[in-house]
Design brief:
274 residues, seven-stranded mixed sheet, 12 helices, 9 strands, 40% helix, globular
């Protein structure tokens, strides 16, 4: 890799107002194989009442609604939620979707409890710790029926995830004394430990290939930045430095036609509400 190539393809820092749209238009679709595998395994249909933690801009909700499920979603990013509202409102199957920033916002006090809770985005609560994530799961589980599945997702083995190199950039540049962006559910038993911490009972798991494919190097960096995994690093250094080092980390996956292909494996755990 030559410095000239890096300078030519390095994207300018993504303005915060465009980050949610970068997520919706570039990054969110990378997890579609995970959504499909879980919905197929759990036979999601019209009987399902789904609560999605970290629902992003609503793609997973839309896919569940297309199967007939009644869907609700929460996310801490209001800009992503605005995009989710636009996306879901355009489809009759998702017209009854409820969206908010916490499970309390979307639970129907007069309706039946949720029958399925998902936490597909392994970076949901990225600025917190495992205990923060467990607390969010416990709050959601309290609004689900007993025995309902709660699906947690995380990275597979680092050696099988091309994105691991990019995430190491985030960890290295972030303040080492900060908890933000350092906890990631990628260890062998991390998801099981998280489920037990939330008071849930592990009950099966699976792995899904979720390759990250991008039109070009600039799109790859924009997509990865939109996850929020690099926010702590940007606060400690600056956005330009993060973009530069992220570009270098992604560059080995640049193909001859200018596209970027990063093979990844995600692991999911099915736990049960006790």
């Amino acid at each position: 890799m030559t410095p000239t190539l890096v300078r030519r393809q390095r994207p300018s820092p993504s303005p915060s107002r465009s980050r949610a749209r970068d997520w919706a238009e570039i990054q969110e679709r990378m997890l579609v194989p995970l959504y499909e595998a879980v919905y197929e395994r759990l036979e999601v249909d019209a009987a399902a009442r789904l609560l999605s933690l970290g629902c992003g801009s609503g793609l997973a909700l839309l896919m569940a609604a297309a199967r007939g499920a009644r869907v609700s979603g929460v996310d801490t990013d209001e800009r992503r939620l605005d995009l989710a509202r636009e996306r879901l409102a355009a489809h009759p199957a998702a017209a009854t979707a409820r969206l908010g920033t916490a499970p309390e916002d979307v639970a129907d006090p007069d309706g039946p409890p949720f029958t399925l809770v998902t936490a597909f985005d392994p970076l949901y609560c990225a600025d917190g710790t495992a205990r923060d994530m467990a607390a969010a799961l416990a709050r959601a589980a309290a609004r689900a029926r007993r025995g309902a599945p709660v699906v947690l997702a995380g990275w597979g083995p680092p050696e099988r995830c091309a994105a691991s190199g990019a995430l190491r950039v985030a960890a290295r540049l972030a303040d080492p004394m900060s908890t933000a962006a350092h906890w990631r559910p990628n260890g062998r038993d991390d998801l099981e430990d998280l489920a037990r911490l939330a008071g849930l009972r592990p009950d099966g798991s699976g792995r899904v290939a979720c390759p990250y494919g991008y039109a070009d190097l600039a799109s790859a960096v924009r997509g990865l930045l939109s996850t929020g995994a690099f926010d702590a690093a940007a606060r400690t250094t600056d956005q330009e430095q993060v973009s530069k080092e992220l570009t270098e980390a992604v560059h080995p996956y640049l193909r001859g036609d200018g596209t970027v292909w990063m093979p990844n494996v995600f692991r999911y755990l099915i736990a049960r509400v006790c």
